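Deadline looming. Please check this record:
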Amino acid sequence: MEQKRLYRASIDKKIFGVCSGIAHYFNIDPTVVRLATVILVFAGGLSLWIYLIAALIMTETTEF
């Protein structure tokens, strides 16, 4: 069984590729993840810090 890994996308990225990588991991549309991230940033601001930390921690891939 293939093990799923969470990566930043280098192909379908807008800023760092975090939302696209999360969307690929959960097999959903990247636009949904991007909209949820924008809503969370304006709602509380905590999501921006989580996004930046994820951009630093997650490795980048071109295999999508």
In short: Residues 30-43 form the longest helix (14 residues). The chain has a mean pLDDT of 86.
